[in-house]
Each structure stands twice: as C-alpha cells, then as structure tokens.
Amino acid sequence: MSKFRRVASTVALEDIARAAGVHRSTVSLALRDHPRISKEVRERIQRLAEEMGYRVNPLVAALMQSRRSGKKVRDVVLAYVTNYSTRYGWRPQYHDRPDYFPGAAARALELGYKLEHFWLAEPGMTPERLSDILTVRGIHGVLVGRLPPGQKAIRLLWERFSCVALGLTMLEPNLHRVAEDHFVSAGRALDRMLERGYRRIGFVFSDIDDSPAVGDRLLGAYLRRMITLGRDSRVDPYYFVPDADPVKRFKAWFDRWKPDALIVTHARPVMAWLTQLGLSVPEEVAVVTLTNHHLEDGCSGIRCEASKLGGLGVEMLVGLMHRGETGVPADPHEVLLGGDWIDGRTIRR
C-alpha cells in the first residue's frame, strides 16, 4: 500500500521521474503500487519520492479518479457532526468516553482534507438546514461522532453525502461504521485474567450502560469464557443503577458473590468503592478495566486508541467519496479494531 500523504507539495511527478531516470507514467504507477511496475522499482521510486518530500494533491487524485469513473469531483472539507445538548458536550472533559475527533482530524490532514465540527443541536438548526449548509459549502463527506446517552438516531439528507459513523451509539440509519471490537477486547482481558489464575471473575457495569450494543458484546465475551469454568465460578454481573447508593449496592453484590477479580467498564468508580470498603487491590481483589483511557492511574486493562478509530473512520469516508458512494448503504460495512492489553498495578503478575 502506498504510504504517501495527500497534502500539497511543490515536488511534481516530473521531478521524481527525472531523478529516478524513468518516465512520468512509471512514477505515477509506482506511487499507486500498481503491479505493472516491479516491486523493486516501485520501492525505489517510493523511497525517492519520500526523500524529496512528495505529497499527493487530493484534488488532483480526485480529478483523475473522476475522469476514470465519470463521476463528479468532491471537495476536500469533511464534516464531523455531533448532537449533544451543548456544542462541545462530546469532548472528554465532560464525560469519560472516547474522543475520536483528534485522530480523525489528524488523519484527515494527512490525506489533504480539513475536518470541521458541525453541531446539529445548535439553536435554530434543523437536519434540512445543516444539510443545505454542507451542500452550499461543497462538503460531501460526513463523519458522525458519538451520540449522547439515550440517543440512537439523527437525521440528515443522507442521500447527498458519503457517510461514516464512529462507535456504536448511532443505530438509525445504519451507516458504514468504525468501532472498537468490544468482543475481542473483552476476550483479551479475560484471557489474561484466567492465565493468572483468577476464576471467580465478576463483571461490573460501573456506569450507565448508555450503549447497549457495546454492553451486549462485552457480556458476550464474558459469558463465553465463564461457561467453560463451571458452576462454582459463576458470578452474576453487577449493573449500575442511577440514584442508588453505589457503595451500599456494590457491597451487597460483592458479599453475595465473593469475586477474586473484577472486569469493569470504568475503573475509577470501582476503585473508589473498593477503597471505601477497605479492600486492597490487587491483594484482595484484582481490577481490570475495559476502557483504559487513564494510563496515569496505573490500572491493568484494555486500551483501544480513539485516535486510531477516528483515523480509520476518515480513511473509510475518503474511500466512499472517491468512489462516489452516497446515502444510506444497502449493505453497511463495519470496521472493528480490537484494543491492546496494558499491564498495570491492579492485577497480580
């Protein structure tokens, strides 16, 4: 796969051709990894282009794609659409959820695009008005960010745009999406816990399960492992209940099931509950988090880089735009990325 970033450059194909002693068309094919050019020549030309600072212009690339396909050239601005009650309610300082925007914006820039935020819930804004604003500005690519708790759908004039959703909060319409592979992530964490001798593992929803699609996948991986251990290892999951005394309720559950380890959706509240109950981690109970966003806490668990997911979303969106695919897809695609295990201080080694 060609690694060249789609940004403006003063180095032209003719410059690389002269330096490499080949024809311009050979350079063009080599930079697109075309099999007509031998691997040795492709790699030599690609190294030379990188050294010379060559960057593909996305407008030129889109124009060439348009000529080949007969479809209209698209613009280079992408929309990042959110629908929280406040303009920046989706940013991390307001909740403990992944922030896809920085990675998406960085990858968009690498590909020669600019990612701009549009707030659908802005006073006076309607789906039709936002669709018209995007159309007038020549913005044909829409990346839908995480929706607020309790919301599963937004409306735009989808037929006008190439569209990709990030995460699993948006269920209607069913767009192409990029998300963490929560089943794989939870499975990796549980395998580590089982390898280290834990058998009575309790699953803890330590906050509101505002994305049931995520919770179902996490529980699926948990139950898949637990059925192999037999009845003696069975521990019913703990579900967070709003407005209840969390410590009192958690203590009752903990005393009932006596787990030797906890796999939790978010570590900070659980660590606080354990501290109030006088339980030491990991001496008396291990804690593994499925959303290890705070590495400074030293918690063991799974970390799926939101920046990677945002970048993958942009890559999918740009591909749709180059192919001229718009509207709600008949066959939505889902790109999933499993998280990585991070060893911390909350599980024995």
From TrEMBL:
Does the record carry DNA-binding as a key word? yes
Q: Is Transcription regulation there in the keyword field?
A: yes
Q: Which UniProt keywords apply?
A: DNA-binding, Repressor, Transcription, Transcription regulation
Q: Which SUPFAM superfamilies match?
A: lambda repressor-like DNA-binding domains (SSF47413), Periplasmic binding protein-like I (SSF53822)
Gene3D superfamilies found in the cross-reference section: 3.40.50.2300, lambda repressor-like DNA-binding domains
Q: Enumerate the spans annotated as HTH lacI-type domain.
A: 11-65
Gene Ontology molecular function: DNA-binding transcription factor activity; transcription cis-regulatory region binding
Q: What is this protein called?
A: HTH-type transcriptional repressor CytR
Biological source species: mine drainage metagenome
Identify the gene encoding this protein: cytR_2
